[in-house]
Amino acid sequence: MIIDIGGGPTSMLLKTINLAARSLVIDPLMYPMWTYERYSTKGIDSTICRGEDIYEEGYDECWIYNCLQHTDDPDLIIKNGLRAAKTIRLFEWVDIPPHDGHPQMITKKMLDDSIG
Predict the structure, then answer these.
(1) What is the rounded distance in angstroms from the CA atom of residue 95 to the CA atom of residue 105?
(2) What is the pLDDT of residue 22?
(3) Please, what is the Cα angle at 8 between 84 and 27, to 5 degrees?
(4) What is the pLDDT of residues 79-114, one digit of tens each?
(5) Largest CB tally within 10 Å, which of 3, 4, 13, 50?
(6) Which residues, other chains included, contact 59 with Cβ-Cβ below 8 Å and sequence gap of 6+?
(7) How many CB atoms lie within 10 A of CB 23?
(8) What is the DSSP string of 62-116?
(9) For the whole model, what pTM was predicted?
(10) What is residue 13's predicted lDDT score, i.e. its pLDDT?
């Protein structure tokens, strides 16, 4: 069971083999209906929600990749991911200054402090 925070319309879950039931994509944006139908066909649940607002628990893994620079509170999203799953897998670009659509600058220190 995997929760993908910020997975967007093309979550990496779509490429997994033997995906366990109850995997979930969380993303705050509304996408065309075919996006959600494609997830459903693969047995993936999806929810329109900000990563800052999730209260999920009980997942084996949480994936967060290439999304934290778009958010209001990256630290809270990481904390929510740590609560949601036993293992967190995270990939984020670091040290890119904020610009339109990317209000956060993610740094190694910020990630280290958030993850603990």
Answers:
(1) 6
(2) 79
(3) 50
(4) 999 999 999 999 999 999 988 888 899 999 999 999
(5) 3
(6) 1, 2, 3, 22, 24, 84, 85, 86
(7) 24
(8) EEEES-GGGSS-HHHHHHHHHHHEEEEEEE---SPPPBTTB-----HHHHHHHH-
(9) 0.93
(10) 97
Query: Who contacts 25 (Cβ-Cβ below 8 Å, separation ≥6)?
Result: 4, 7, 8, 11, 13, 39, 44, 45, 46, 47
Mean pLDDT of the chain: 94
Distance of CA 31 to the CA centre of its chain: 16
> What pLDDT sits at residue 73?
96
Between CA 60 and CA 69 the distance in angstroms is 25
Higher pLDDT, 113 or 18: 113
